Amino acid sequence: MNPTSQFTGTTEYDYGYDENTAPCNEGNNFRRFKSFFLPILYCLVFVFCLLGNSLVLWVLLTRKRLTTMTDICLLNLATSDLLFILPLPFQAYYASDQWVFGNAMCKIMAGIYYTGFYSSIFFITFMSVDRYIAIVHALYATRIRTATCGIVTSLILWLVAGLASVPNIMFSQELEVEQSLQCVPTYP
Fold first, then answer.
1. Rounded CA gap, 91 and 99, in Å?
2. Nearest-CA neighbor of 88 among 60, 59, 117?
3. Which residues contact 104 (CB under 8 A, 6 or more apart)?
4. Per-residue burial over 125-148, b = 16 or more CB atoms within 10 Å of its CB, e = otherwise
5. Can you tell me the distance from the alpha carbon of 83 to that of 77, in angstroms, rounded to the nearest whole number?
6. Alpha-carbon distance 161 to 122, whole Å?
7. CB-based burial, 34-43: b 16+ in 10 Å, e otherwise
8. Regarding the domain delimited by 30-177, which CATH topology (the fold level of the hierarchy) does it fall under?
9. Model confidence over 39-91: pLDDT tens digits?
10. How many CA atoms lie less than 13 Å away from 85 in the CB half-sphere?
11. Is residue 180 very low, low, confident or very high in pLDDT (cuts 50, 70, 90)?
């Protein structure tokens, strides 16, 4: 018996390319769902975060004196959250269609978004470290947990957040991808 004789019944496939073949359209249902669902979600998040953080800012600025480190941290965290959600209406329209706001707005919105993103992370971390110092090192905390120290630290954190977002500002640009304008980061 010939060892290759057992494979005589195999099927040959045609691997030729037919130029009249259309691409698969199964992803269109997801795109349609995404273009409907994401704008609604972004708008709801924007409205609730705008109301909640504006209320926090209003209470902190009008009803309370910013004398403690916690108040200063909350003020900065609410501000960074507002900065973080500011681009959401633009992203809502972008999710439903394409980026129509131009290259300058692409860079500005990326800068605002990432500055809010990084500053939120930094201020939550700062609040955690502040709470740790207040609880574990209570005697030492009374000397360093002053309003002046909180303001100086907040200014430094805002500066670091702004510097951390510079690469995102520089590399974000409006590009045409598959006959659609998109605001995307393009790294060298």
1. 8
2. 117
3. none
4. ebbeebeeebeeeeeebeeebeee
5. 10
6. 8
7. eeeeebeebe
8. Rhopdopsin 7-helix transmembrane proteins (1.20.1070)
9. 999 999 999 999 999 999 999 999 878 888 888 999 999 999 999 999 999 99
10. 19
11. confident
Backbone φ and ψ of 31, nearest 5°: -65, -40
Tell which wins on pLDDT, 32 or 133: 133
Q: Where are the beta strands (DSSP E) in the chain?
A: 172-177, 180-185
- 120: confidence class by pLDDT, cuts 50, 70, 90: very high
Pair of tokens at residue 188:
């060298």
Angstrom distances, CA of residue 130 to CA of 67, 121, 124, 152, 166? 15, 14, 10, 14, 27
The encoded tokens of residue 141 equal 């905390």
22, burial (CB in 10 Å: exposed 0-12, middle 13-18, buried 19+) = exposed
The whole-number average pLDDT for the span 110-125 is 96
Query: Does the pLDDT of residue 5 top 70, yes or no?
Result: no
Amino acid, res. 87: P
The answer to whether the CB of 120 falls within 8 A of the CB of 89 is no
3-state secondary structure of 137: coil
